[in-house]
Structure formats: structure tokens, C-alpha cells
Amino acid sequence: QVQLVESGGGLVQAGGSLRLSCAASGIIFRLNYMGWYRQAPGKQRELVATSTSGGTSGGSTNYADSVKGRFTISRDNAKNTVYLQMNSLKPEDTGVYYCNTRGVLNENYWGQGTQVTVSS
Fold first, then answer.
1. Are 34 and 46 in contact (CB under 8 A)?
2. Interval 57-85: pLDDT, tens
3. Percent of the chain with pLDDT over 90
4. Which of 26, 50, 61, 93 registers the highest number of CB atoms within 10 A of its CB?
5. What is the 3 state secondary structure string of 13-73?
């Protein structure tokens, strides 16, 4: 079955950086769309970044306006892993970050989430 396991969250000061990782199994990773979402306390889950097959070196990427220029999504097809490099972090980036992909029937799969806390 499809499994997504995130790691790399933590506590960081404003202006700092973190890199999140999501290891995927049960899918043909190199062909799959991968995405990062986040959910702040009391708010709905929102899209952060997406990557179609190929990532930054061949596929396409898309970012929420709030993270453009600061976050970069990339993927290592050999490791079945997608990354989210987060720079110039702001307190409003705080939340639980989830990895997302879709199955053959376009059903959603989610990881367990990793907490990112940015202190001011």
C-alpha cells in the first residue's frame, strides 16, 4: 500500500531554514505528482508546493504565493523522496506539514505530518 513518511520538522527562529523530507513507497514515484501542504492551528490545510514527475530538473513545480522565492520543492527519484527546502522562515509558516500524493484512481494519500514551529 501507499506510505508517505515525513521528517525534518522542528523549532527554528525567524529567518532560519529547515529541510523536510518525505519518503514514499507503494507508488511509481518517478511518475507521480507529489505535494506539500500545511495546516496551522485553527486553519484549513493549504497547498504549499507541488511537483510533477521530474521536479526541478525536468518536471514542473508550483508554489503558493506566500512561499514563492523562499521554499523549493525537489525530488530524488532514485530515493523515492521529495524534499521541501524552506528558507527565510517566518512565524506564519508555523504548522504541521503534510506530504501528499495521489493513487491510480486519483485518491489522496497523506503522510502523518511533521511539525514546523518558527519563533519570532
1. no
2. 568 999 999 999 999 999 998 999 999 99
3. 78
4. 93
5. ECCCCEEEEEEEECCCHHHCCEEEEEECCCCCCEEEEEECCCHHHCCCEEECCCCCCCEEE
